[in-house]
Amino acid sequence: MVTVHGLKRSYGHVDAVRGVSLDIHEGEVFGLLGPNGAGKTTLLECVVGLRVPDAGEITVAGIDARRRAREVQQRIGVMLQSTALQDKITPREALRLFATFYRNAADPDQLLERFSLTEKAGATFDTLSGGQRQRLALAVALVNNPEILFLDEPTAGLDPQSRRELRDEIARLKKDGCTVLLTTHDVDEAERLCDRVAIMDGGEIIATGEPRALGVESASLQSVSFSTKPRIATERLAAIPGVVDVSFDGARITFRTADARRTLRELAARLEEDGAELLELHVHRATLEDVFLRLTGAENDR
Question: Are 32 and 189 in contact (CB under 8 A)?
Answer without folding.
Answer: no
